């Protein structure tokens, strides 16, 4: 029953969170050809430095420094013979000025109805607004995988691609490729035929074809793809910003990714770097889809309850291959202790209990079935145990340290094991691993399962795990916008005829939508948008390689078959929100991330059902009211967006403004002294006139072409017009 150590698995787990694409109906994980091989010459890392000399030393060691913001560098690091865990530690130990090495963590990654929620489609039609807004002049970008850049959803009326640039990273080989134009896209085809996530997400955000178009259908699109480490995501965000800056435009960046482990306080190097990007662009992230999963346990240790045991279950529930990680964070620098036990699920008895571990400085304890199975970690305390080997082949490892970025004690249990012993009660494994965390009275710990491979179950007599901290760690930065999801629809048409339905109720928050009340007091997510059951574009290359997907719409154009399909998740609600924000930026290009967050929170709807459900976060996105709030609060023109935008005021005021043939006319039958002010759309006063005549015609020939607002000072009389 020997099982050799899987270096690739350990590379992905050691001191790293496990990510997932924030949707739950994609059949392929997308980790076939995108997976980074353990023999690849490079791995990715975020390196924090405190001196300029450190960069020179890293460069001399062959480290490729891709991007840098202040003291944070995004790097491809040459892989040495030792494991990447050792390599990362050695980089720090032999390079003065390197503060922390955070290895790149692997991420595993419709609109006809969605645009109708809360009159969102009025943004595009311009109803009750000065003009329509479609994201024109704004760059919308995603960091993802599975793009079909020449899908008809991303072509303009002349058949030219609205996707202006695709940047592909191959982190394992240290490669970066840039593609532009129809010819290059046609030759390249796609980054992978085994996923369609990017195609679906990009169409929700900015697609422009038919009834399933997206929320910013006239924006410029930039796509970045990678093996979806956090370094790949951050480099992709920089590429999107590069294109926007080259063309003098603002950018909205969407990352439909989630990570359920981590400190959840914005202190990771990833969050620090992303916050810096969000000073220039608007960054939108998924909240996650763990809202109904037993993956978290916040626990306060007391005299009566000094430990918290949790059964570790595989997400396939069969338990033959325990694999994944448990992430444990103390609220401060107070340490906690961790140990492994093994339970016989047939009788509920503990059959093995291993020593408590309180580890510091990154030290590691490894329990293994034999020396060949133990991962080759230098200076680790390795225990080869015969009783463990009678049940499992493989290993469990525990490490611990005080995190340098937040001062909190951090312990991780990682594991890759296998058992062949079947339960007498069913076709599942008999033996269950248990992680137990212990702390002194007054200590608080937040315990997380990765939710990609591992979840928790309650141990009889122990605390119950839940989803109260299920919010994605990626979206915990101060400057980023996090999005949960509500149910968009429950009936979808099928391309083959008929329809399909679900049991979910439209207009209710999805039970899968992640949420949390963070330690710093923030209620997450910031907003909730349509995400559960959304029809959007499907990659043609994925559809050709995987013919078992349900197609909701299909159209043949010039001999090419294009498809649209249903997907669900905060992967869908995040690009919806990103597209809406692009429309806001078209109206007000100067909006900052802080202002956009203020707009969202101020205009969020609070009239949703089940008010006490924490998945509602801080409210539901209202695209139209958000735009009106933005125009009123940040355009420099106050109170012009009431229910009516006519040129008439209240009934007692007989004055009126009209516009015709580039002339403005004041009708003033009472001869009242009146000041007419004309503003451009940014709120700048362009002209003013005074009159007490019964009728006064004002030439506007001195004004350039554009959209303007005229008002009579001191009154509610406003008129919008276009020259």
Structural features, described:
By secondary structure, the chain is an alpha+beta fold. The protein contains 14 helices and 40 strands. Strands 8-7-9-6-10-12-25-30 form an eight-stranded mixed beta sheet, with helices on both faces. A seven-stranded mixed beta sheet has the order 13-23-15-21-20-18-19. Helix 8 packs parallel to helix 9, helix 12 runs parallel beside helix 14 and helix 13 packs across helix 14 (623-634).
Would you count the extended β strands for me? 40
Report the biggest beta sheet as strand number plus sense, adding barrel if it closes.
Answer: 8 strands, mixed
Mean pLDDT: 86
Instruction: Give the class from helix and strand content and strand pairing.
Output: alpha+beta
Backbone shape: elongated
Instruction: Supply the number of helical segments.
Output: 14
Q: Could you list the spans in which at least 5 consecutive residues all have pLDDT below 50?
A: 1-20, 24-37, 81-87, 108-115, 639-649
Helical amount: 10-25%
Spatial strand sequence of the major β-sheet: 8-7-9-6-10-12-25-30
Distance between the amino and carboxyl termini: 80 Å
């Amino acid at each position: 029953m020997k099982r050799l150590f899987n270096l690739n698995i350990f590379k992905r787990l050691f001191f790293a969170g496990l990510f997932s694409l924030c949707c739950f109906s994609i059949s392929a994980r997308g980790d076939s050809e995108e997976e980074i091989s353990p023999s690849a010459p490079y791995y990715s890392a975020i390196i924090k430095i405190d001196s300029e000399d450190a960069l020179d030393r890293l460069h001399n060691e062959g480290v490729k420094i891709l991007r840098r913001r202040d003291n944070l560098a995004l790097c491809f690091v040459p892989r040495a013979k030792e494991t990447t865990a050792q390599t990362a530690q050695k980089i720090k130990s032999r390079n003065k000025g390197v503060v922390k090495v955070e290895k790149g963590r692997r991420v595993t990654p419709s609109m006809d109805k969605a645009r109708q929620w809360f009159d969102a489609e009025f943004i595009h039609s311009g109803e009750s607004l000065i003009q329509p807004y479609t994201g024109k002049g704004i760059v919308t970008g995603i960091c993802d995988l599975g793009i079909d850049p020449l899908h008809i959803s991303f072509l303009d009326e002349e058949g030219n691609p609205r996707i202006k640039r695709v940047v592909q990273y191959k982190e394992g080989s240290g490669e970066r490729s840039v593609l532009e134009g129809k010819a290059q896209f046609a030759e390249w085809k796609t980054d992978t035929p085994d996923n369609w996530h990017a195609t679906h997400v990009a169409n929700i955000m900015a697609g422009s074809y038919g009834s399933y178009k997206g929320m910013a259908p006239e924006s410029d699109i930039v796509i970045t793809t990678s093996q979806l480490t956090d370094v790949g995501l951050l480099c992709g965000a920089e590429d999107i910003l590069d294109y926007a800056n080259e063309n003098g435009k603002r950018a909205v960046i969407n990352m439909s990714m989630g990570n359920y482990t981590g400190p959840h306080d914005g202190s990771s190097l990833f969050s620090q770097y992303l916050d810096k990007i969000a000073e220039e662009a608007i960054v939108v992230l998924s909240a996650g889809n763990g809202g109904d999963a037993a993956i978290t346990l916040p626990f306060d240790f007391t005299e009566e309850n000094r430990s918290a045991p949790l059964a570790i279950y595989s997400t396939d529930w069969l338990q033959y291959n325990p694999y994944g990680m448990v992430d444990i964070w103390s609220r401060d620098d107070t340490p906690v202790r961790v140990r492994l036990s093994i339970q016989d699920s047939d009788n509920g008895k503990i059959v093995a209990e291993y020593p408590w571990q309180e580890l510091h400085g990154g030290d590691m304890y490894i329990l293994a079935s034999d020396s060949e199975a133990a991962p080759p970690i230098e200076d680790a305390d390795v225990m080869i145990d015969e009783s463990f080997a009678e049940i499992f082949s493989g290993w469990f490892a525990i490490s611990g340290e005080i995190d340098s970025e937040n001062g909190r004690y951090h312990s991780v249990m990682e594991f890759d094991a296998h058992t062949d012993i079947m339960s007498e009660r069913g076709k599942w494994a008999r033996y269950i691993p248990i992680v137990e965390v212990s702390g002194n009275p007054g200590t608080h710990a937040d315990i997380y399962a990765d939710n990609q491979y591992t979840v928790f179950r309650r141990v009889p007599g122990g605390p119950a795990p839940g989803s109260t901290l299920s919010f994605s760690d990626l979206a915990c930065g101060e400057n980023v916008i996090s999005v949960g999801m509500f149910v968009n629809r429950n009936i979808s048409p099928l391309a083959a005829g008929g329809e399909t339905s679900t049991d979910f109720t439209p207009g209710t928050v999805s039970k899968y939508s992640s949420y949390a009340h963070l330690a710093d007091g923030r209620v997450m997510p910031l907003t909730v948008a349509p995400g559960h059951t959304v029809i959007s574009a499907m990659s043609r290359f994925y559809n050709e390689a995987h013919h078992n997907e349900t197609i909701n719409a299909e159209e043949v154009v010039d001999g090419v078959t294009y498809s649209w399909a249903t997907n669900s998740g905060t992967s869908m609600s995040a690009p919806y929100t990103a597209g809406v924000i692009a429309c806001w930026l078209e109206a007000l290009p100067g909006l900052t991330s802080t202002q956009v967050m203020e707009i969202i929170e101020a205009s969020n709807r609070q009239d949703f059902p089940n008010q006490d459900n924490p998945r509602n976060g801080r409210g539901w996105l209202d695209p139209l009211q958000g735009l009106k709030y933005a125009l009123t609060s940040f355009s420099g023109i106050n109170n012009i967006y009431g229910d009516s935008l006519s040129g008439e005021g209240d009934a007692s005021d007989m004055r009126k403004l009209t516009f015709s043939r580039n002339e403005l006319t004041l009708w003033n039958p009472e001869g009242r002294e009146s000041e007419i002010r004309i503003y451009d759309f940014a709120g700048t006063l362009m002209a003013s006139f005074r009159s007490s005549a019964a009728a006064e015609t004002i030439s506007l020939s001195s004004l350039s072409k554009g959209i303007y607002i005229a008002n009579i000072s001191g009154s509610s009389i406003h008129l919008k017009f276009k020259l």
